[in-house]
Amino acid sequence: MTPRPILVVEDEPKLAALLCDYLRASGYAPHAVADGHGALAAFAALAPAVVLLDLNLPGLDGLEVCRRLRRASDVPILMLTARVDEVDRLLGLEIGADDYLCKPYSPREVVARVRALLRRADGALAGGAGQRASVGGFLFDEPGLRAWWRDRALPLTPVEFRLLRALLQPPGRVLARAQLLDAIHADFRDVSDRAVDSHVKNLRRKLQAALPEHDGIVSVYGLGYRFDLPLDEPAAAVALAGAKAGTDGSA
Protein backbone atom coordinates (compact mmCIF):
# COMPACT_ATOMS: atom_id res chain seq x y z
CA MET A 1 0.00 0.00 0.00
CA THR A 2 1.31 3.46 -0.90
CA PRO A 3 2.10 5.49 2.26
CA ARG A 4 -0.41 8.26 2.84
CA PRO A 5 1.05 11.77 2.58
CA ILE A 6 1.07 13.93 5.73
CA LEU A 7 1.86 17.64 5.47
CA VAL A 8 3.90 18.92 8.46
CA VAL A 9 3.89 22.73 8.72
CA GLU A 10 6.45 23.59 11.41
CA ASP A 11 9.09 26.34 11.46
CA GLU A 12 11.32 24.64 14.09
CA PRO A 13 13.60 22.39 11.98
CA LYS A 14 14.47 19.91 14.75
CA LEU A 15 10.83 19.47 15.76
CA ALA A 16 9.73 19.11 12.13
CA ALA A 17 12.41 16.47 11.55
CA LEU A 18 11.39 14.59 14.71
CA LEU A 19 7.72 14.53 13.69
CA CYS A 20 8.63 13.36 10.20
CA ASP A 21 10.78 10.55 11.63
CA TYR A 22 7.92 9.27 13.81
CA LEU A 23 5.37 9.55 11.01
CA ARG A 24 7.66 7.77 8.57
CA ALA A 25 8.30 4.99 11.08
CA SER A 26 4.52 4.62 11.43
CA GLY A 27 4.05 4.03 7.72
CA TYR A 28 3.19 7.54 6.50
CA ALA A 29 4.90 9.77 3.94
CA PRO A 30 5.55 13.10 5.68
CA HIS A 31 6.51 16.30 3.87
CA ALA A 32 7.68 19.29 5.94
CA VAL A 33 7.47 23.01 5.15
CA ALA A 34 8.42 25.92 7.39
CA ASP A 35 6.01 28.75 6.50
CA GLY A 36 2.41 29.47 5.62
CA HIS A 37 2.83 30.20 1.92
CA GLY A 38 4.90 27.05 1.54
CA ALA A 39 2.11 25.13 3.27
CA LEU A 40 -0.48 26.28 0.73
CA ALA A 41 1.79 25.41 -2.20
CA ALA A 42 2.65 22.00 -0.74
CA PHE A 43 -1.00 21.26 -0.02
CA ALA A 44 -1.93 21.88 -3.65
CA ALA A 45 0.91 19.67 -4.88
CA LEU A 46 0.60 16.80 -2.38
CA ALA A 47 -3.13 16.51 -1.60
CA PRO A 48 -2.19 15.26 1.91
CA ALA A 49 -4.41 13.00 3.99
CA VAL A 50 -3.79 15.08 7.15
CA VAL A 51 -2.21 18.48 7.83
CA LEU A 52 -0.16 19.11 11.00
CA LEU A 53 -0.22 22.87 11.31
CA ASP A 54 1.85 25.02 13.67
CA LEU A 55 0.06 28.18 14.79
CA ASN A 56 3.10 30.46 14.98
CA LEU A 57 4.52 30.67 11.47
CA PRO A 58 6.55 33.36 9.72
CA GLY A 59 4.55 35.46 7.28
CA LEU A 60 1.17 33.79 6.91
CA ASP A 61 0.26 32.41 10.35
CA GLY A 62 -1.36 29.08 11.08
CA LEU A 63 -4.84 30.50 11.66
CA GLU A 64 -4.93 32.09 8.21
CA VAL A 65 -3.51 28.95 6.60
CA CYS A 66 -6.26 26.96 8.34
CA ARG A 67 -8.93 29.34 7.06
CA ARG A 68 -7.69 29.06 3.48
CA LEU A 69 -7.37 25.28 3.60
CA ARG A 70 -10.84 24.90 5.06
CA ARG A 71 -12.37 26.99 2.27
CA ALA A 72 -10.98 24.56 -0.27
CA SER A 73 -10.99 21.20 1.50
CA ASP A 74 -12.29 19.11 4.41
CA VAL A 75 -8.84 17.58 4.99
CA PRO A 76 -8.32 16.82 8.72
CA ILE A 77 -6.21 19.55 10.36
CA LEU A 78 -4.30 19.03 13.61
CA MET A 79 -3.03 22.30 15.09
CA LEU A 80 0.28 22.21 16.96
CA THR A 81 1.23 25.26 18.99
CA ALA A 82 2.96 26.71 22.04
CA ARG A 83 -0.04 28.94 22.75
CA VAL A 84 -2.09 27.63 25.64
CA ASP A 85 -4.54 30.53 25.97
CA GLU A 86 -8.17 29.38 25.84
CA VAL A 87 -9.08 32.07 23.28
CA ASP A 88 -6.44 30.79 20.88
CA ARG A 89 -7.59 27.22 21.51
CA LEU A 90 -11.23 27.94 20.70
CA LEU A 91 -10.34 30.14 17.74
CA GLY A 92 -8.26 27.37 16.24
CA LEU A 93 -11.19 24.97 16.47
CA GLU A 94 -13.77 27.52 15.33
CA ILE A 95 -12.03 28.24 12.03
CA GLY A 96 -12.05 24.58 11.09
CA ALA A 97 -9.25 22.71 12.85
CA ASP A 98 -10.27 19.19 13.83
CA ASP A 99 -7.90 18.77 16.77
CA TYR A 100 -5.44 20.79 18.84
CA LEU A 101 -2.22 19.89 20.71
CA CYS A 102 -0.15 22.26 22.85
CA LYS A 103 3.63 22.11 23.09
CA PRO A 104 5.41 20.29 24.58
CA TYR A 105 3.77 17.14 23.24
CA SER A 106 4.88 13.61 22.59
CA PRO A 107 5.51 12.70 18.93
CA ARG A 108 3.77 9.40 19.71
CA GLU A 109 0.67 11.36 20.72
CA VAL A 110 0.81 13.25 17.43
CA VAL A 111 0.93 9.96 15.51
CA ALA A 112 -2.02 8.66 17.57
CA ARG A 113 -4.03 11.77 16.72
CA VAL A 114 -3.17 11.39 13.04
CA ARG A 115 -4.42 7.80 13.10
CA ALA A 116 -7.65 8.89 14.81
CA LEU A 117 -8.26 11.67 12.27
CA LEU A 118 -7.67 9.26 9.39
CA ARG A 119 -10.09 6.72 10.85
CA ARG A 120 -12.78 9.35 11.00
CA ALA A 121 -12.04 10.70 7.55
CA ASP A 122 -12.16 7.16 6.17
CA GLY A 123 -15.68 6.71 7.45
CA ALA A 124 -15.21 4.89 10.74
CA LEU A 125 -18.66 6.04 11.87
CA ALA A 126 -21.60 3.65 11.96
CA GLY A 127 -22.44 2.10 8.65
CA GLY A 128 -20.55 0.32 5.95
CA ALA A 129 -19.19 1.43 2.61
CA GLY A 130 -21.82 3.11 0.47
CA GLN A 131 -24.31 3.57 3.33
CA ARG A 132 -26.54 6.61 3.64
CA ALA A 133 -28.89 7.62 6.41
CA SER A 134 -31.87 9.96 6.23
CA VAL A 135 -33.25 11.98 9.15
CA GLY A 136 -36.11 14.25 8.28
CA GLY A 137 -34.89 16.44 5.43
CA PHE A 138 -31.22 15.63 6.11
CA LEU A 139 -29.28 13.02 4.16
CA PHE A 140 -25.95 11.70 5.44
CA ASP A 141 -23.23 9.90 3.50
CA GLU A 142 -21.60 8.16 6.46
CA PRO A 143 -18.33 6.92 4.88
CA GLY A 144 -17.81 10.14 2.93
CA LEU A 145 -18.68 12.41 5.89
CA ARG A 146 -20.97 14.43 3.61
CA ALA A 147 -24.42 15.83 4.38
CA TRP A 148 -27.27 17.47 2.50
CA TRP A 149 -30.37 19.39 3.53
CA ARG A 150 -32.94 18.19 1.00
CA ASP A 151 -31.01 18.68 -2.26
CA ARG A 152 -28.51 21.23 -0.95
CA ALA A 153 -24.99 20.10 -0.01
CA LEU A 154 -23.80 21.30 3.40
CA PRO A 155 -20.10 22.35 3.51
CA LEU A 156 -19.35 20.66 6.83
CA THR A 157 -15.99 19.74 8.30
CA PRO A 158 -15.68 16.17 9.66
CA VAL A 159 -16.19 17.47 13.20
CA GLU A 160 -19.32 19.40 12.18
CA PHE A 161 -20.65 16.32 10.36
CA ARG A 162 -20.29 14.21 13.51
CA LEU A 163 -21.82 16.95 15.65
CA LEU A 164 -24.91 17.27 13.44
CA ARG A 165 -25.24 13.49 13.20
CA ALA A 166 -25.15 13.18 17.00
CA LEU A 167 -27.76 15.91 17.46
CA LEU A 168 -30.08 14.11 15.05
CA GLN A 169 -29.90 10.67 16.73
CA PRO A 170 -32.76 11.25 17.32
CA PRO A 171 -33.78 14.91 16.89
CA GLY A 172 -35.28 16.60 19.94
CA ARG A 173 -33.03 14.77 22.44
CA VAL A 174 -30.92 16.95 24.75
CA LEU A 175 -27.21 16.08 24.66
CA ALA A 176 -24.74 17.32 27.26
CA ARG A 177 -21.43 18.79 26.12
CA ALA A 178 -19.62 15.70 27.37
CA GLN A 179 -21.83 13.49 25.20
CA LEU A 180 -21.15 15.67 22.17
CA LEU A 181 -17.42 15.51 22.88
CA ASP A 182 -17.68 11.72 22.89
CA ALA A 183 -19.33 11.91 19.46
CA ILE A 184 -16.90 14.34 17.81
CA HIS A 185 -13.65 13.42 19.62
CA ALA A 186 -14.22 9.78 20.48
CA ASP A 187 -10.53 8.85 20.67
CA PHE A 188 -9.42 11.38 23.27
CA ARG A 189 -10.86 13.66 25.93
CA ASP A 190 -8.33 16.44 26.57
CA VAL A 191 -10.31 18.96 24.51
CA SER A 192 -12.11 21.61 26.57
CA ASP A 193 -15.89 21.20 26.90
CA ARG A 194 -16.19 24.80 25.74
CA ALA A 195 -14.84 23.74 22.36
CA VAL A 196 -18.29 22.24 21.74
CA ASP A 197 -19.78 25.74 21.89
CA SER A 198 -17.34 26.85 19.21
CA HIS A 199 -18.24 23.92 16.94
CA VAL A 200 -21.96 24.52 17.51
CA LYS A 201 -21.57 28.17 16.57
CA ASN A 202 -19.81 27.23 13.34
CA LEU A 203 -22.36 24.51 12.50
CA ARG A 204 -25.30 26.83 13.24
CA ARG A 205 -23.92 29.45 10.85
CA LYS A 206 -23.66 26.91 8.03
CA LEU A 207 -27.12 25.48 8.67
CA GLN A 208 -28.66 28.95 8.65
CA ALA A 209 -27.44 29.42 5.08
CA ALA A 210 -29.46 26.33 4.07
CA LEU A 211 -32.40 26.88 6.46
CA PRO A 212 -32.58 30.67 6.86
CA GLU A 213 -35.96 30.61 8.59
CA HIS A 214 -35.23 27.81 11.07
CA ASP A 215 -32.56 27.70 13.77
CA GLY A 216 -32.73 24.03 14.70
CA ILE A 217 -29.94 24.01 17.30
CA VAL A 218 -31.42 24.92 20.69
CA SER A 219 -29.29 25.73 23.75
CA VAL A 220 -30.77 24.11 26.87
CA TYR A 221 -29.53 26.08 29.86
CA GLY A 222 -27.42 24.03 32.24
CA LEU A 223 -27.76 20.88 30.16
CA GLY A 224 -26.43 21.17 26.60
CA TYR A 225 -28.00 21.24 23.14
CA ARG A 226 -30.81 19.66 21.17
CA PHE A 227 -31.86 19.83 17.52
CA ASP A 228 -35.47 20.50 16.56
CA LEU A 229 -36.52 19.65 13.02
CA PRO A 230 -38.78 22.07 11.12
CA LEU A 231 -42.43 21.34 11.91
CA ASP A 232 -43.09 20.08 8.38
CA GLU A 233 -40.31 17.47 8.56
CA PRO A 234 -40.86 13.97 10.01
CA ALA A 235 -38.51 12.94 12.80
CA ALA A 236 -38.22 9.31 11.73
CA ALA A 237 -34.75 8.13 10.76
CA VAL A 238 -34.34 5.63 7.93
CA ALA A 239 -31.06 3.83 7.14
CA LEU A 240 -30.51 3.12 3.48
CA ALA A 241 -27.87 0.41 3.29
CA GLY A 242 -26.02 -0.17 0.07
CA ALA A 243 -26.98 3.12 -1.65
CA LYS A 244 -24.06 4.57 -3.53
CA ALA A 245 -23.00 8.07 -2.49
CA GLY A 246 -23.49 10.58 -5.29
CA THR A 247 -20.41 12.31 -6.61
CA ASP A 248 -22.23 15.42 -7.74
CA GLY A 249 -23.47 16.44 -4.27
CA SER A 250 -27.09 15.74 -5.16
CA ALA A 251 -29.40 13.83 -2.83
Mean model confidence by pLDDT: 79
Question: How many domains make up the coordinates?
Answer: 2
Output the CATH homologous superfamily of the largest domain.
Answer: Response regulator
Can you tell me the residue ranges where pLDDT is under 50 for at least 5 consecutive residues? 124-130, 235-251
Q: Do you know the CATH topology of the largest domain?
A: Rossmann fold
Structural class assignment: alpha/beta
Radius of gyration: 18 Å
Helix content: 25-40%
What is the CATH-assigned architecture of the largest domain?
A: 3-Layer(aba) Sandwich
Oligomeric state of shown chains? single chain
Distance between the termini: 33 Å
CATH secondary-structure class of the largest domain: Alpha Beta
Strand content: 15-25%
| Largest sheet report | 5 strands, parallel
